[in-house]
Amino acid sequence: MTTDTNYHIPVLLKESVNGLMLKPDAIVVDATFGGGGHSAYILSKLSQKGFLFGFDQDIDAVSNALKAPNFKLIEANFKHLKNHLFAEGIVEVDAILADIGVSSHQFDAEKRGFSFRAEAPLDMRMNQRTGRTAASFLNEASEEELLRIFNTYSDLNNVFRLVQGLLRERSVQPFYSTGDLLKVAKSFAPKNREHKYIAQVFQALRIETNDEIGVLKKLLLDAKDLLKKGGRISVISYHSIEDRVVKNYFKKGDTDGVETKDFYGNLIKPFLEVNRHPIVPGEKEIERNNRARSAKLRIAEKV
Hints:
Number of strands: 7
Shape: globular
Low-confidence stretches: none
Distance between the termini: 34 Å
CATH class of the largest domain: Alpha Beta
Structural class: alpha/beta
CATH superfamily of the largest domain: Vaccinia Virus protein VP39
Helix content: 25-40%
Number of helices: 12
């Protein structure tokens, strides 16, 4: 069974899959199929009595579908995971894996507009068949909306000035390409930190375009309902905003970190952390795949 490592090299592969403690007859969900690397390794742990459902909203991932009788790829955003599983007659599963964020393929496909390294339409949609583009959002969002996304989804310390610059630019000419946004972002980037600054501008806009945090929160809530008692979930995240959501839910039972306690003062939460601190890639993995450097893996068990 082959997978497309050019599409996306699976990060923390053995750590994330082995942490699920899969039995041969397990029903498993790979919520972010991509190039199929994690899925192929999951299938190697299953017998023919086990079954794996893969989810991916990106039409480019369909060509990577694995040819196995106990695998099915569902072309959908994992925010619809529960409904699609119910349609398959599945009301509970043994394990869920999610490798959150943008795939290497999406970054490298210049026409998709995720990267500022190439001139391309400012699209950024993970599912190009639906939703508004990043350019449409930039051209239509109010000042308040722009302030919200850059304050929430970045660590920039001059958000107000950046937003004023974006508003001035679009009043002259609408945003269309990555170059249009790059020009404005560069003009506000601190010296010697241009790359990091521009990356955060693009990241914030991408997160908003795909509602990435809202979708992640729904996945965690759905996992609570779908996982059997003792079932496990592995989540790999790539920036502090995502990791904070996962950490809050596993530690406190709420994606925003709000604690709820019972009459006796015990914390009410659906999961028990398997690892209290995130698992990160080793030096050898980062040497093989530089994009793994910011990855953090958290694993939890349904109580």
